[in-house]
Design a protein that fits this description.
By secondary structure, this protein is mainly β. Helices cover 6% and strands 41% of the residues. It folds into three domains: 311 residues, Kelch-type beta propeller (Neuraminidase, 6 Propeller); 78 residues, Sandwich (Immunoglobulin-like); 73 residues, no CATH class. It contains two helices and 43 strands. A hairpin with a 2-residue loop joins strand 8 and strand 9. InterPro entries: FN3_dom, FN3_sf, Ig-like_fold, Kelch-typ_b-propeller, Kelch_1. Keywords: Kelch repeat, Repeat. It comes from Paenibacillus radicis (ex Xue et al. 2023).
Length: 489
């Protein structure tokens, strides 16, 4: 990977002399406390757990990997060294499951000794364990967790200059391996993200012997075990930072030498450029926390590591599909979840188009029941989304009129069955609005957004209790199912 420098210079020269490059606006990056050690080639897919960022391994110079595990706490903007990797590694693929971080493969140095080791880091215990190795050694692969399994894609063997198109599936509970349908085009050093039950393999390099970066967007369906393709990258790229938030995947920097922050919208299969990163660099680690995009480390030259930590405050997307339903002295307002949101404001007016007064702040979930209304009066509602970057624009307006003789229409209910990692089964009989709130929370946590714990109000079988609540931790859930049914009139 890093030996390609001479050819990379040729490609850069070609870009400036023979190609038209669209300039990008500079966006605002906020500098944070640097890592304790400057590094590039940090483990693929930097992990987030309980509001902290885990950075594993990397190179401090060519042929000099380290065994560092550094943890960043954004609350006090500080770094802490944790228990070291079993061996120095760079380019390992990582993913998280059940409060444990798994590393797959990597390289012991720049030129050779690619490994097939699998290590498990117990976050609470701060300890490492060795697990069942992969069948083949590889470096610069990509990994994601889906439905209790970890999918490991592609990579290369630096020993034999072999690029893989394999899809290897690891079961953390049984410590065993199985295989999926191979990638149409084998790559390494690509971006990877999981959105709406699809896994996206973006760009990458397909040949260590020469510069063969790709534009390809290869999309894997783990349910059907099949591949499709998406709109290609605007330019070939590899060694970029990447993270997914909601329905979008964000790429940072890379070998195209443009130094851009790009956004891929999986809903309409389109690309856009948000701005540039400074300085330009490759082999960046990237992740998101509460909708904010973090860039960590990387290199500005062939052997120039950085310890930079920068964050882009990403204002959430404006909520859509606002609906208001009037009842007896109440109005229920619902909306679709917003990408990057950590909470919502609900605003109200008695005049169409406002001005609006905030009636609820930092609402978690995607519904709110307004009980401070008067029957017979028409109210107009808008909703905004919040995160650390600020507040979105107002949503579309919805109106409703509460009436003493009208009750909200009866909605469907469902049995929510949650299977925990310890085998315990929890079952809840809930309205679909509550079910949808739970699903929104779960999808948010999968993208690194929202609280680690979800509260379920057990209003059924309440007896003489003032309230009954269950607290479900995201990392304790193996899977869940929803069984919707219709209430008889």
């Amino acid at each position: 990977m890093i030996q390609k420098f001479g050819l990379v210079l040729f490609m850069i020269l070609f870009l400036f002399l023979g190609a038209t490059v669209t300039s990008a606006s500079t966006i605002s990056w906020e500098d944070k406390s640097p890592m304790q050690r400057a590094k590039f080639g940090i483990a693929q897919s930097t992990q987030v757990y309980d509001g902290k960022i885990y950075v594993i391994g990397g190179l401090v110079s060519l042929n000099s990997p380290v065994d560092d595990l550094e943890v960043y706490n954004p609350k006090n903007d500080s770094w802490t060294m944790k228990s070291s990797l079993p061996k120095p590694l760079w380019g390992a693929a990582t993913s998280i499951f059940g409060g444990k971080i798994y590393t797959f493969g990597g390289s012991e140095n720049e030129g050779n000794r690619t490994v097939n080791n699998v290590y498990e880091y117990d976050i609470q215990g701060n300890t490492w364990a060795t697990k069942q190795p992969m069948a083949l050694p590889r470096s610069e692969a990509g990994a994601v967790t889906y439905a209790g399994k970890i999918y490991v894609f592609g990579g290369q063997d630096l020993n034999g200059r072999t690029v893989y198109n394999t899809v290897d599936i690891y079961d953390p509970l049984s410590d065993s391996w199985s295989s999926g349908t191979p990638i149409p085009i084998g790559v390494y050093d690509f971006a990877i993200g999981i959105v709406n039950n699809k896994i996206y393999i973006i760009g990458g390099d397909k040949n260590e012997g020469g510069v063969q970066y790709t534009k390809n967007v290869q999309i894997y369906d783990p349910i059907l075990n099949s591949w499709t393709s998406g709109t290609p990258l605007p330019s070939e790229n590899s060694e970029m930072g990447y993270t997914s938030i909601g329905n979008k995947i964000y790429l940072s920097g890379g070998q195209d030498n443009l130094g851009l922050l790009s956004e891929y919208n999986t809903q309409d299969d389109s690309w856009s450029t948000l701005g540039s990163i400074t300085p330009k660099r490759t082999l960046i680690a990237s992740t998101n926390l509460n909708g904010d995009i973090y860039l960590i480390g990387g290199r500005t030259g062939r052997d120039t590591p950085t310890n930079f930590v920068q964050v882009y405050r990403n204002v959430p997307v404006t909520p859509i599909n606002i609906v208001a339903i009037g009842g007896n002295s109440l109005i229920q307002v619902t909306w679709d979840g917003s990408t990057g949101a950590t909470g919502y404001n609900v605003k109200r007016s008695t005049t169409i188009g406002g001005p609006y007064t905030t009636v609820a702040s930092n609402v978690y979930g995607t519904s709110y029941t307004d009980t401070t209304v008067t029957n017979g009066t028409t109210y107009y509602y808008v909703v905004t989304a919040l995160n650390s970057a600020g507040e979105s624009a107002n949503s579309n307006e919805a109106l409703a009129t509460p009436q003493g003789t009208v009750t909200p229409p009866t909605s469907n209910k469902a049995l929510l069955v949650i299977i925990l990692l310890n085998g315990l089964e929890k079952e809840y009989d809930l309205p679909m609005t509550d079910i949808n709130n739970f699903i929104s929370w779960y999808n948010g946590r999968a993208a690194g957004i929202g609280s680690e714990v979800y509260t379920i109000n057990k209003n059924f079988n309440k007896a003489h209790f003032l309230n009954r609540k269950d607290y479900i931790a995201y990392d304790k859930i193996e899977f869940f199912e929803v069984n919707e049914y219709t209430l008889l009139p």
